[in-house]
Amino acid sequence: MVTSRKRRGRRDRVRSVSHDRFRDTCRVLGPLLAILGLALFAIAIGDFFSGFGDFDHGPGLFWLAFLGVPLMGVGFLLTMIGFFGAAARYVAEETRGSVETLVQAAAGGVRPEPQDERRCRKCGEVNDAGARFCKSCGTALQQSVRCPSCEELNEADARFCDACGARLDPR
Q1: Same domain (yes/no): 141, 101
Q2: Who has greater pLDDT, 90 or 77?
Q3: Among 93, 108, 123, which residue terminates a domain?
Q4: 130 vs 115, 119, 147, CA distance in Å?
Q5: C-alpha to C-alpha distances, 169 to 91, 102, 142, 160, 163, nearest whole angstrom
């Protein structure tokens, strides 16, 4: 079996020459059969409607419709087979960026806030890193409740310690 090596993106694909020949045959023969089937169907329909006015001579070529419709179906099928790989590669390449972004977001979660700013939990306003209160709504931004068990600083409205999980004293 003779093979041809084609470079596609980051990987090498090894395909046989017979596969390439079959694909090319489907790409040429499919549209030809579909066009031939469409022509036979059009002749049959034209003959069918032309026979309405003449009672002596009915439609004689309507049987071509029964040949044309299957030929169109086979032609469309061969065309789809011939172009399936190219279409699949196109769709994969077009959607790759979106899928990569989605996977990164799902795997990594939300990106952490930059260290030089703090977001208010109440209104969502971005504040400076050293700010103690939100510049928009005035909510306290500093972690101000110290855990009695581990001495870790927690946010002012926290009920449990972020570090050890101990219950914090309500104020």
Answers
A1: no
A2: 77
A3: 108
A4: 10, 12, 22
A5: 57, 41, 17, 9, 15
